[in-house]
Amino acid sequence: MQIAKHRIGRRTWLTADAEDLASYAIEKLAGASKRGVIQNEEAWLSAVIRNRVIDLAIRRDAELARLVLVQDELPFRRLAGGQSEPREVRRRGAQLRGLSLNVIEKEERDMARLLASAIVAAMPDAWDRAVLSDRFYAGASMSITELAKRHGKTPNVMANYLVAVLGTPQQPGAVRSVATLLEQLSQRQSEAYVRLLVEHEDDLSIVTDPFGAARGYLELVSHRSRQHQSDARLAISRLTWLQNHLPNSKGRANKVLRRLTLASCLYIMEEHDANNDLLDQRGLSDDVDVLNAARIATLRHAN
Predict the structure, then answer these.
(1) 81-137: per-residue pLDDT in tens?
(2) Helices in the chain by DSSP H: which ranges?
(3) CB 25 within 8 A of CB 49
(4) 3-class DSSP state for residue 175?
């Protein structure tokens, strides 16, 4: 059991499965022992659990990759001024831009998938995450009536809930800060940020003082180079600002924004994010970008 917990590590979404992982490894060990002597059973069990965890993580990533935004819900493509690009313009553009448009549209589909995953993970409660997962699931997404039936609500209540969360062209929803934050980041940075947000969706407060822990990590790695020192100093100032402007927990929009900020602290403490923090002189540049993005989201959407 202890080996399973160690291998799970920070994958909090697997914590409840620690006992199953241990049982799985013991069953494998029993079968292997019948075929020959295992010299180091502890190392063998650790390797089996490690491979099983990797396999489960790959399956989870594949499932999350199937999350897509429902048509017209928070469209990622925007024109200057924040208006969505009309569909007829897109069709005419497809004829003019050919292969380049295919590349652009693939990138936009990838970003839409990341946005959907981030919206789900940023929601404050497991019920919210379950509803939006069903709403965004690939292929034919569930209708509002089906969604309401599955989650014990009336269609009217469910429709009002989705409007409050996802918003309309006239009224921003509670998750608008998620889109604002990701819009400031490159795709590589978004992928690293969303991965951490999803991995810790059940427990973003893995340390008692996330701001202090992130600040301590930055001070630790600031000695790698002059550029590290400069970026760390800037990141610490952004962390201080975010801590001083952390929204209260009143209302869904503020809860979402708080979770985004906590995820930004986790991003700082992650060595292997968009840029490896230790291997490159610009290793902390993406950390600064994430904190800047969280700051912009806070300025625009904190209540």
Answers:
(1) 444 444 444 444 544 455 566 666 677 777 888 898 999 999 999 999 989 888 887
(2) 2-8, 18-35, 41-65, 87-97, 99-122, 126-136, 144-150, 155-166, 176-183, 187-199, 210-221, 226-244, 252-269, 285-301
(3) yes
(4) coil
**CA distances to 90, 92, 187 from 101, in Å:** 9, 11, 17
Predicted TM-score of the model (pTM): 0.69
Which tokens go with 128?
Answer: 């919210």
Query: 283: which DSSP letter?
Result: T
In angstroms, the CA 21 to CA 9 distance is 13
User: How do residues 230-278 score in pLDDT, each as one tens digit?
Assistant: 999 999 999 999 999 999 989 999 999 999 999 999 999 998 888 889 8
Q: What is the pLDDT of residues 214-241, one digit of tens each?
A: 999 999 999 999 999 999 999 999 999 9
| Domain residue ranges in the chain | 2-65, 187-301
CB of 253 within 8 A of CB of 200?
no
SS3 22: helix
Tokens in use for 191?
């992928």
Question: How far apart are alpha carbons 303 and 85 in whole angstroms?
Answer: 29
The pLDDT of residue 89: 43
CA distance 150 to 141: 13
pLDDT of 215 reads: 93
| Interatomic CA distance for residues 131 and 187, integer angstroms | 26
